[in-house]
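TA notes, week 10

Several of you asked for a full example with nothing omitted. So below is the full record: structure tokens for the whole chain, then the designed sequence directly under it. When grading your own attempts, check the secondary structure regions first.
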């Protein structure tokens, strides 16, 4: 009788720890990512203030930072590229190039200026 209660209590305690531990890890990841974004944004604003960058260029700097953050979600691409083999990076670049060069329905690619270089990356 007491052994069954103890085992049930132990099972519930382990499940409780597992569920709330995972929830805590997810929340921590969100707060960490948000903190890194705010830190980068603050650094860009300090750079703009320190060097007295005029408004059109300052807006472009902020937009560029926001765009790169939305694309990479804060991942440092230099660190990723160091850990990956060269062939895999070339394959990823070719895939991205083929996506940009893909036909958009009007007979020319999305970035038709670079269409002469499309033959370099024929990935099957």
């Amino acid at each position: 009788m007491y052994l069954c209660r103890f085992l049930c209590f132990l099972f519930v305690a382990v499940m409780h720890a597992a569920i709330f531990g995972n929830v805590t890890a997810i929340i921590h990841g969100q707060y960490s990512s948000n903190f890194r974004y705010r830190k980068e944004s603050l650094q860009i604003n300090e750079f703009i203030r320190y060097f007295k960058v005029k408004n059109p260029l300052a807006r472009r700097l902020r937009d560029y930072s926001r765009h790169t953050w939305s694309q990479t979600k804060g991942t440092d691409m230099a660190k990723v590229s160091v850990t990956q083999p060269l062939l895999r990076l070339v394959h990823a670049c070719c895939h991205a190039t083929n996506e940009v060069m893909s036909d958009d329905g009007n007979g020319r690619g999305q970035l038709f200026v670079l269409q002469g270089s499309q033959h370099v990356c024929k990935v099957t």
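The two ends are 65 Å apart (CA to CA). Use that as a sanity check on your answer.
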